[in-house]
Design goal:
Layout lengths: L2 H21 L1 E2 L2 H21 L5 H23 L2 E5 L2 E5 L2 H23 L9 H23 L11
Antiparallel strand pairs: 1-3, 2-3
Helix pairs in contact: 2-5, 3-4, 3-5
Length: 159
């Protein structure tokens, strides 16, 4: 798949997820886990297809993914969870966007360090970092949701 097309698809997915969560949406397991799993899978596939990725490159990928996941977990702690119509809902807050902005700065700095260390571009798939960031967020939100005692929202019927 063309890199620009893949980038556009990923951008659209991220924008849709953020807009939905900014407005507030029912919290169900599928919507919580599917986007990060899809983006992480795309990132891993991109990494697997990359040419000339060395062991040193991979030594940067793992800490980068862990950092991204941790920043996503911090972001997940700022998401507002509330009950509506007997089900759990989620909404991004101003603090969520502050953490997001800080995360972008931190990950940008990590990317610059990786570039200066000579890590190949193929070893730095953006989709992987976005996916594991959303995964860290989902894990924290899921744990908070379970601890709340409020049932998760039912799955929406598929069309």
């Amino acid at each position: 798949m063309n890199g620009w097309l893949l980038g556009a698809i990923i951008a659209v997915v991220v924008i849709v997820v953020v807009i939905k969560r900014l407005k507030g949406e029912p919290l169900n397991a599928r919507d919580l886990l599917v986007p990060p799993v899809v983006l992480t899978t795309i990132g891993v596939a991109s990494l697997a297809k990359a040419r000339q990725v060395t062991g040193a490159d991979l030594a940067w990928v793992v800490p980068g993914a862990l950092l991204s996941c941790g920043l996503g977990a911090v972001r997940g702690a700022t998401v507002q969870l509330f009950e509506k119509s007997g089900a759990l809902w989620q909404r991004y807050t101003g603090r969520t966007f502050l953490v997001l902005a800080g995360s972008l700065v931190i990950m940008g700095g990590f990317g610059l360090l990786a570039t200066h260390a000579g890590v190949s571009e193929g070893a730095r798939p953006v989709q992987l970092n976005i996916g594991v960031s959303f995964l860290g967020e989902a894990l924290v939100i899921g744990a908070r949701g379970l601890a709340s005692g409020v049932p998760f929202a039912p799955e929406r019927p598929r069309r």
